[in-house]
Amino acid sequence: MDHQFVNLRFTIVERECLSVYLRRRMARKPLVVGASEISKVLGVSRPRAYALQKQLEKKGVLVNDKGQGFFPSKDGEIILDSLQHRWKVLETFLYSDLEMKLDDASAEAMNMVLHVSDNLITTLCKRLDVPVFCPHHLRIPSH
Fold first, then answer.
1. When you count CB atoms within 10 A of the terminal residue's CB, does the N or C end of the chain come out lower?
2. Which range of residues forms the domain containing residue 64?
3. β-strand partners of 62
4. Residue 72: what are its φ and ψ, rounded to 5°?
5. CA distance 108 to 124
6. Residue range 3-58, pLDDT digits in tens
7. Residue 41: CB partners within 8 Å, gap ≥ 6?
8. How far apart are alpha carbons 134 and 128 in whole angstroms?
9. Considering the domain boundaries, does residue 141 fall inside one?
10. Is residue 39 included in any domain, yes or no?
């Protein structure tokens, strides 16, 4: 799967939907998400949230667990790995180089993760000497 996906393959609202799955993953919560949660987080109607999840299912990113919600497909897991990598690289840079407080660095990194280019992430990785651990001492997924 091509990792040059964030800005090219998905719409802004689809990226925001993916961020819900990323936040759940980072909080170690189950990744089966219903339309009601997407609706609440994104501020859209439940039918719009469900349609959004169906769009991502058609793109091969989500799988519908009938009656339970949607969960990431194998390709979806790869995308979440890549998003998690991006988030943790950004967080590490903001914390170590810009000396932000860790909670602030983490929140800002989440705000930015869906909007920065792969080129920036690659450049930050080089500047950080390809970090293996984030400031929380968790392993950064390889990209």
1. N
2. 12-77
3. 72
4. -65, 140
5. 15
6. 455 555 788 899 899 999 999 998 889 899 999 999 999 999 999 999 999 999 99
7. 16, 20
8. 11
9. no
10. yes
Residue 24 lies in a domain: yes
Contact 56, 18 (CB under 8 A): yes
Alpha helices in 61-117 (DSSP H): 74-96, 102-112
**Residue 59 corresponds to which tokens in the numbers above?**
């793109």
Residue spans of beta strands (DSSP E) within the chain: 62-65, 69-72
Domains held by the chain: number: 1
Q: With respect to residue 56, please indicate whether it lies within any of the assigned structural domains.
A: yes
Residue 118, both tokens: 């792969």
Please give the single-letter amino acid code of residue 20.
V
Classified as helix, coil or strand, 105 is helix
Tell me the three state secondary structure of residue 7. Answer: coil
